[in-house]
Amino acid sequence: MSPLNGYLLLSALLFSIGLAGALTRRNAILVLIGIELMLNAANLNLIAFWRYGPNPAALTGIMFTIFSISVAAAEAAVGLGIILAVHRHTKTTDLDQMNSMKG
Amino acid sequence: MTVIFLILAAITIAGTAAAMSLRSAIHCILALTIGLVGLAALYLLLGAQFVGFTQILVYVGAVAILAVFAIMMTQGPGKTIQPILSTNWPAGILVAAAVFAILAWAIRSTPAHSTPTQPDATVNQIGAALMHHYVLPLEIMGLLLTAALIGAVIIAMPEKKEPQ
After folding, report:
1. Which residues in chain B touch residue A24, judged by CB atoms under 8 angstroms apart?
2. What percent of chain B has pLDDT over 90?
3. What is the mean pLDDT of chain B?
4. What is residue B45's three-state secondary structure?
């Protein structure tokens, strides 16, 4: 197996772990962490394709990953703020108990 | 497929799998930091030094601390014994396993030709590219981060009581 395939398999496994966490956990913060893990798996794909791609001098994968990390940081800040606001209304972070749209 | 890659991949998978399966949320975040440090080491192994250190700074330094703060603000002092998994968890596990199976099948059935040369991406090159070719995305990213941080603070602030 070539190194690129190894990195891609690792990235697929990381994505699946994040997806499983985001779909099955009850705690809203850990669901957000699962989404972050899926973003990280995509970043690993980008870096691996940059490293083993045909034109690494263009730095496209690096740039994409840097911007992706920035967007993920903004998403985490806003997501945790929303979770705090929802927690103030409903006094829970259990997603199975958040079943009404109107606080 | 070097030994270093296998060790780092094992650390990353073990850390992230523990982060998604442990009971205590704080333990989950601690396991997540281990997994993300392993991922940063993989970036270093791939030759992307700047991205590796950015990963440590942003994820281990900022996002994990933010998540720990959020957990400490949302969890009361009382110990609650309740299931950590949602009620429809078998469907979630099934979907995740199916996604991994499809991705792994696609990866295994695709021939990969890899370039043996290690490309160099120095911080000098990255900075020059950010300031010349990617300067507009950089500015938009600064605007997005500013808006997101202000928005997060406004969302998380206590609301004023409106007169009925």
Report:
1. 85-86, 89, 92-93
2. 53
3. 87
4. helix
Nearest to A66 by CA among B42, B127, B41, B151: B127
Q: Cβ of B99 and A15 within 8 Å?
A: yes
Q: What is the CATH number of the domain that holds A20?
A: 1.10.287.3510
Domain total in chain A: 1
pLDDT in tens, A79-103: 999 999 888 888 877 887 777 776 5
pLDDT at A39 over 90: yes
Distances (CA, A) of A10 to A36, A37, A48, B112: 16, 12, 11, 15
Nearest CB to B84 within list A16, A26, A76: A26
Domain containing A64: what range?
3-97
Q: How far is A101 from chain B (nearest CA, A)?
A: 17
Q: What is the Cα Rg of chain B in Å?
A: 21
Q: What is the pLDDT of residues B74-119, one digit of tens each?
A: 876 655 667 778 788 899 999 999 999 999 999 988 887 666 667 7
| C-beta neighbour count of A24 within 10 angstroms | 24
SS3 B65: helix
Q: Is the pTM of this model over 0.95?
A: no
Q: Which residue type does A31 have? A: V
Tokens of A57: 């001098």
Query: Would you tell me which residues 87-116 of chain B have a C-beta closer than 8 angstroms to some C-beta of chain A?
Result: 87, 89, 91-93, 95-97, 99-100, 103-104, 107-108, 110, 112-115
Mean pLDDT, chain A, rounded, equals 88
Query: Do B51 and A3 make contact, defined as CB atoms within 8 angstroms?
Result: no
Rounded CA-CA distance B58/B41 in Å is 14
